[in-house]
Amino acid sequence: MKSKQISATRSHRSSVAKKVQRKATTFRFAPVVQKRLELLGKLKKTPLNRLVNVAVAQYVDIGLAEAEADLTNVLGRIRASRQADPNFDSAIGEFIEAEATLAARDPVEGEVVKPKSGRKKAKEGAAQTKVHEVLGV
Questions:
Q1: Angle between helices 48-84 and 31-44 (to 10 degrees)
Q2: I want to staple 124 with a disulfide (CB 3.0 to 4.6 A). Which of 33, 36, 74, 128 is the partner?
Q3: For 33-65, how does the pLDDT look when each residue is reduced to its tens digit (9 = 90+)?
């Protein structure tokens, strides 16, 4: 009879182990934290592993709730912004105004650099010749 109970218990344990796979992980605690954790474990008569699991679970729950609240806030601001200017007309207007105002001083527009006098000019290829024709250089 006992062998059937042991067999049933092992079978149950293996099915539970398949459902919930725990992973051993190593953490290094500051010495002060380690001592305080050990003291708490002795006072509560609770294994350190369980104390750490409970503490980490609480920390993760709080962190995720804060992140969710932050993301909900950001999403609300994005929605409000889109409703205020659904076609981005003001952004487009600001871009056009900046381009018109700064076009003469825009460093991205570039300028043609001519070789210094006295330096030999390298032989141009067909593409360079065409570009220089278009630019009027």
A1: 110
A2: 128
A3: 999 999 999 999 999 999 999 999 999 999 999
Read off the tokens for 61. 């729950």
User: For the chain, what is the total number of helices (H) and then of strands (E)?
Assistant: 5, 0
pLDDT tens, position by position, 100-124: 888 777 777 777 677 676 666 667 7
Give the span between the Cα atoms of 52 and 59, in whole angstroms. 10
* Boundaries of domain holding 50: 27-105
Helix (H, G, I), strand (E, B) or coil at 121: coil
Cβ(29)–Cβ(37) below 8 Å: yes
Q: Residue 40: what pLDDT?
A: 97
Considering only CA atoms, which of 30, 22, 28 is closest in space to residue 53? 22
**Cα-Cα end-to-end distance for the chain:** 102
What is the rounded distance in angstroms from the CA atom of residue 55 to the CA atom of residue 37?
11
**Residue 16: what pLDDT?**
55
- Judge contact between 67 and 61, C-beta under 8 A: no
Domain-embedded: residue 137 = no
